[in-house]
Amino acid sequence: MKLPVLYFRSLLLPLSLSLSFSSVQAAEMGRHSVSSGIPTTQSYEQSSWMDAQTGIEIGVDFLKVRWDVGSTSLDDAALAPMLGLVYRANPSVDLRAGLSFFSVEDQAGEMNYDLDVLQVGLGARYWFSRETDFSPVLGVALNYLSLDSDAVADLDGTLGINAELGVAYQGIDNLQIQAALTGGTSLLDSEGMVGGEKFDVNLSSLGVGVRVIFLF
């Protein structure tokens, strides 16, 4: 009777070893499957959070403009339409290339001074919150100002800087609506001729504006 028992035990031993090895392999495969899945989920979340977007911005500013021709100070109100391209580098920062235009005119004695301003600039904005429908926004831009005037001949272009502080509504996917206080000034004096004499020309502005940003 001992031989069948020994024979039966000899069969069970390899079978148990085989089952144990298979269990270890299955456990290892399970661990690899779970661990390989974790970075996949994290990388997806990171790429979703950091996805860049491009867009178009349109808007208009109502400006109070002051400009000086030599010692003569002039001021006028103007509407300044603007068009821009937006690149949202991450959820908090966007870069913008913009174009705007306005015309002003004022009387000083018998002289009528007009000024046409074409403004081309590059800027950046910081969005303080992405967790709510409304976010404060702070922006700054460096501009080139192309100046033209019938009263001031040979008027040079100049560099300027603009800043804005506003609030944006971002409750609609891929659409932001922003209201902002704006201010700008020329960094360098321009030069022009009036009656054969050369004068320095500089300008500054304060205003309020509305922008609509469409993201793709």
Brief summary:
With 216 residues, the chain is of the alpha+beta class.
Summarize the structure in words.
The protein starts with a helix and ends with a strand. The chain has one helix and nine strands, in the order αβββββββββ. It is elongated. Strand 2 and strand 3 form a beta hairpin. The protein has two domains: 51 residues; 164 residues, Porin, CATH 2.40.160. It has 216 residues and is an alpha+beta fold.
Question: Which labels suit this protein?
Answer:
single chain, about 220 residues, alpha+beta, Porin, 2 domains, eight-stranded antiparallel beta barrel, 1 helix, 9 strands, about 60% strand, elongated, disordered N terminus
What is the CATH architecture annotation of the largest domain?
Beta Barrel
Number of helices: 1
CATH fold-level label of the largest domain: Porin
Shape: elongated
Q: Average pLDDT across residues?
A: 84
Rg for CA atoms: 34 Å
How widely separated are the two ends? 83 Å
Q: In terms of quaternary structure, what is this?
A: single chain
In which order are the strands of the major sheet placed?
Answer: 1-2-3-4-5-6-7-9
Output the helix-strand order. Answer: HEEEEEEEEE
What is the CATH C-level name of the largest domain?
A: Mainly Beta
The main sheet comes to: 8 strands, antiparallel, barrel
Give the strand tally.
9
Helix and strand arrangement:
Elements: H1 2-50, E1 53-69, E2 72-90, E3 93-108, E4 111-127, E5 134-148, E6 158-172, E7 175-186, E8 190-194, E9 197-215
Antiparallel strand pairs: 1-2, 1-9, 2-3, 3-4, 4-5, 5-6, 6-7, 7-9, 8-9
